[in-house]
Design a protein that fits this description.
The protein is of the alpha/beta class. It contains nine helices and nine strands. The structure holds adenosine-5'-diphosphate and magnesium ion. Adenosine-5'-diphosphate binds next to strand 2 and helix 1.
Amino acid sequence: MAENIIEIKNLSFSFGNYQALDDISFNIKKGEIVAIIGPNGSGKTTLLNIIIGNYKPQTGSVLIKKQLPKKVRQKIGYVPQKFQFDREIPITVYEFMALEKCEQDNHRPRHIKKILEQVGLKNKQKQKLGSLSGGQFQRVMIARALLHEKDILIFDEPSSGIDIVGEQTIYDLIKDINQTRKTTCLIVSHELNIVNKYADNVLCLNKKMLCYGKPETTISPQTLTELFGINAGLYHSHNHK
Ligand code: ADP
Ligand code: MG
């Protein structure tokens, strides 16, 4: 059985007096795809920031590969929810990729081209970054995270603002990376059908941890009503695997 790569135990976190996360415990095994679902403000992005070592929890422990997040930060690729970018900046897709910090010699043009090809942007290399569609831009962000070999890739709502076809392509790409590179993937998503299709496990978060487990057993009508307050029956009837 695969070993745990992420181990979170009794984690609580507050911004000043405001408690954003309350007693979270779960483990992620190497090679898994895990989705985090929960309403706005439920602490999803905060949890990711703790996992990558940006925030230090006041209570509980977070271990990545048995070490503190800060120690293994270089082994984690992060595709943030919002990437601030001025679309007027006259930079091409290739030039943007080449800006990424250079570690070994794997930043040679050939490597960049190979990665762009992998994310389906081979013919966009010379195109201005600002002229890409939302889905294409997101794929550049993913490509940037793929320049280095990572053990864990973290995606914060990778398909928000992208149409349904673009969304499918993004998740197919994540699945492909997961399969070929054996990378553990952690994804915040609002798309329950997608979570059902791609995730090995799902964490339902609303400051507290509502549940954690396989999507087909975890995403029940009761859970969804508790989590989002929506009519979950509507979702369930469309989701027989
Ligand atoms: P989600 O990603 O699930 O929408 P967040 O993790 O971004 O939620 O935020 C969880 C809660 O913590 C929200 O109520 C948000 O307003 C608050 N919060 C997030 N970041 C900060 C911060 N830097 N300072 C103070 N409060 C914050
Ligand atoms: Mg968020």
